[in-house]
Amino acid sequence: MRENQMNQIEKISTFLAGQKEKMVELEKLLTSIPALAPENGGDGEEKKADALEKWLKDQGFTHIQRFEAPDSRVSSGKRPSLVVTISGQSDSAVWSMAHLDVVPVGDKELWNTNPWEAVEKDGKIYGRGVEDNQQGLVSSVFAALYLLKNQIKPSRTVKLLFMADEEVGSKYGIIWLLNNTSLFKKDDLILIPDGGDPKGETIEVAEKNILWLKFHVLGKQAHGSRPDQGNNACLAASDLSLRIHALEKVFSERNKLFEPDYTTIQPTMRFSNVEGVNIIPGKDTFCVDARILPCYSINQILAAVEEKCSEIEDEYKVQVCYEVLQSSESPATAVDAPVVEKLKEALKSVHGIKARTIGIGGGTVGAELRRLGYSCAVWSTLDECAHMPNEYCLIENMIKDAETLAYFFS
Q1: CA gap 42, 279 in Å, rounded
Q2: pLDDT in tens, 258-309
Q3: Cis peptide before 4 (omega within 30 of 0)
């Protein structure tokens, strides 16, 4: 490695080692402000965005833009996203994109700490959102802070995007931004620190297509002792859910880029139907989460689903309809795309990591970008405890990722 590279890495490491307490403080600030979507019983990201914007200004960031998607369901009437810019030697940009919103805590009894009060213990920070996605957010901020405090003008303009609405579909986040702004250029390097592995050696370049469905099965309610006088919607729905799940064996291709390496079609959430054991349900509602290999289109899956719905209608004398709750498909980023190659180089130079490319079944905002022709990579060093009780962030990982990002930016 060249001497100037070694000196640069040493400077980055020394600076960020001295920022540990401030990084933990920012995690604590962000965790204390629940940013839940209305779908999850929350009031959006406004208060969290306000607090983050103030914190950034206090640190000396001066170029902060605010983009607000209208949403009448939240008290402010808008869902904010922030863009922080550090001007570079060219207009071409390198991006780091994290999201402001988090998921609900789930069963609070399973938490050992208050999920909305970040707790530092044994090298970890516990709390809802500390890993997903505040670790990536904080790492990005402090990587940029290294440039700011050391008055370094990077070769490319550095942009940090902190988005709304990632957890429930991105309609008021990246989708709104892509439809209503001109933030991105095709030659931008776009990095999303919102998925990875404990060693930080995997770079996600492809996602399975995502399809969420909600089924309504309408039969005829009757007394529990007289099923002959009704049409049991619960029975029909149960059979339908199994037949739809069995489509995994129909769409049976394998792709080792992904884990698991096959299409998954899983019945998930089920809704209450009747209030008594002795009632034959006249209506039953359930959901399906499908993660589909890119070799199959969503329309192929829907055609097969509709065929199964027709079979159930004929056999059980019920009516079946469904809603598409989420539908997303996108091409892959090339494994040799500039963002991938430059991230690999940064990981190798800073930490000696030989990174490899993978695909995932989970959805990220990367799918929305790739669909419009923007190459992007998803990466981070994570223990992958997102959405779990006792979610935590390893402080060492947060600092390590900030080091990689500072080198990647500069």
Answers
A1: 35
A2: 999 999 999 999 999 999 999 999 999 999 999 999 999 999 999 999 999 9
A3: no
Nearest to 235 by CA among 255, 252, 220, 256: 220
Q: How far apart are CA 233 and CA 215, in angstroms?
A: 11
Q: Tell me, what's the pLDDT at 238? A: 98
Q: With 90 as the cut, is the pLDDT of residue 75 above it?
A: yes
Predicted pLDDT of residue 363: 78
CA-to-CA distance for 210 and 294, rounded, in angstroms?
Answer: 10
Stated pTM of the model? 0.83
The band of 364, judged by pLDDT with boundaries at 50, 70 and 90, is confident
Answer yes or no: are the C-beta atoms of 220 and 231 closer than 8 Å: yes
Cα 123 to Cα 127, 380, 393, distances in angstroms: 14, 18, 9
Would you say 318 and 312 are in contact if contact means Cβ atoms under 8 Å apart?
yes
Q: How far is CA 215 from CA 81, 197, 318, 320, 375, in A?
A: 33, 34, 12, 7, 35
Q: Quote the crossing angle between the two packed helices 134-149 and 3-17, to the nearest 10°.
A: 120
Q: Which two tokens stand for residue 357?
A: 């490319």
Per-residue pLDDT tens digits for 18-37: 999 999 999 999 999 999 99
Note the pLDDT of residue 1: 61
Task: Indicate the residue type of 237.
Answer: A
Q: Which value, in Å, is the radius of gyration of the alpha carbons in the chain?
A: 24
How far is 333 from 12, CA to CA, in rounded Å? 29
Extract the tokens encoding 175. 């989708």
Which residues are known catalytic residues? 101, 166
With the C-alpha atoms ordered 174, 175, 179, 185, is the resulting torsion angle positive or negative? positive
User: In the chain, what's the furthest Cα-to-Cα distance?
Assistant: 84
Mean residue pLDDT of the chain comes to 96
| Residue 230 dihedral angles phi and psi, to the nearest 5° | -130, -175
Q: Going along 76-121, which residue ranges are E strands?
A: 78-86, 90-99, 119-121
Confidence class for position 330, pLDDT limits 50, 70, 90: confident
Angle at 114 between CA 110 and CA 116, to 5 degrees: 115
**Which residues contact residue 179 at a Cβ distance below 8 angstroms, ignoring those fewer than 6 apart?**
none
